[in-house]
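Hello forum,

I keep getting stuck at the same step: I have a sequence, I want structure tokens, and every attempt I make locally crashes halfway through. Rather than fight my setup again tonight, could one of you with a working pipeline run this one for me? It's a single chain of 260 residues.
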Amino acid sequence: MSERRSALVTGSTSGIGLGIARALAKSGMNVTLNGLGDAAEIERVRAALAEEAGVAVRFDGADLMQADACTGLVDGAVAAFGRLDVLVNNAGIQFVSPVEDFPVEKWNAIIALNLSSAFHTISAAMRGMKARAYGRIINIASAHALVASPFKSAYVAAKHGVLGLTKAVALEGAPFNVRCNAISPGYVLTPLVENQIPDTMKARGMTRDQVINDVLLAAQPTKQFVRIEDVAGLALFLTTPAADQINGASLSIDGGWTAQ
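Reply #2:
Ran it on my machine without issues. Output:
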């Protein structure tokens, strides 16, 4: 078994997930990436991260909508690196609609990816973590794990579920030195959010600054986006000895959104 620790980050080919994967790799961990995107671009990202951090980086394109694929993703990481020390459940999707019009297939997809995939990966990883008496599980929740917004019934339900799952797993893992925590970010300026700004400007007749301050950041008192590096830094901290007694927590990083 390799002495170098191993991490698996779902939804890590871009955005928050890639930022977390980069932080963990730079700390000296071997990393398994997972997510969607152009195959050539994913390989470029993988190779660049491996060279930059001086660790082994692999990619697994497992479809997290399928329970067996989630299990296979974890098993593949263990097979490749001999161990899995850090599991970060980050993958997620969003859809906005009034609840009476919310398509059933969208509800099912959001619950499957945002909540059920975390259950499946944790279930697959837990036995090995207990046996090695070490594990750090980090679930990327959301401010919407704590408060709701209209027209996001599936996303809010899933993220509330992620927080409940986090607490239950934290209690089960505690005697085995397995810690489970959630990070609950506010709005992060990822490419996904950035791409929504021009459409919102057009639809609402607003300037870019108005969209950012009066729509996207309306609930965040700092009026600043959470940076990917902020979330990645917090995730990395949760893997250090200084965080050994943080367990079952929801750590908000939302500019004060949920303080209101």
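The mean pLDDT is 96. If your local run keeps crashing, start a new thread with the error log.
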